[in-house]
Amino acid sequence: MNCTNDIKESNIVFDVIKKRRSVRRFDRRPIPKEIMEHILEGARWAPSGANVQPWRFIVVEKREMLEALGNICYYRIFKSRHVNEAGAAVVICADIEAGSATYMLDCAIAGTNMTLMATSLGIGSCWIGAFEEPTVRGMLKIPQKLKIIALIAFGFEVGKASAPPRLPLSKIVHHDTYAGEPDLLSRIVKSGPFSVFGKLLRVLFNKR
To answer: May I ask the CATH class of domain 19-161?
Structure first.
């Protein structure tokens, strides 16, 4: 085993992981079909409990439907305007009758694969977890046996999203036994809502 080559190859993957951002400003260009297929292939190869593969994906690309989705995606006073501007949105659903007890985790892993594949292809992405579920279900004709897990907006980024801070490994990794929580100041500054407060304000005032 050549550890040096293995580390070099792993750095390629690590670079993609570090480049991924929650992009909240897109230029409305449609995403080419072959790129979208690569993104979806990334999801298809995700692991799932007992290999049940409970995920089902609805790709929304029509401009009028993206704008309609954008109008029903918001968290309290923060409206997800970037959905209106996206080149595509993928609605991740789980077939709850497929027999997977871990369908939420399965779909989250598949969605993460999509965002990483998108990053490697020069496409920005943003998870959308707050939306009017009944309206989305009716708009996209999603049957009741499918549980809507999340939406992910994809598109060509306008500007460059900054990297949010991350807690160091020394604050989050425990060996053999649990050693306690990070100090309060670290948690406030380097994680949680306060770490993205400026970004939330820019979204609120459409200064993303």
So the answer is: alpha beta
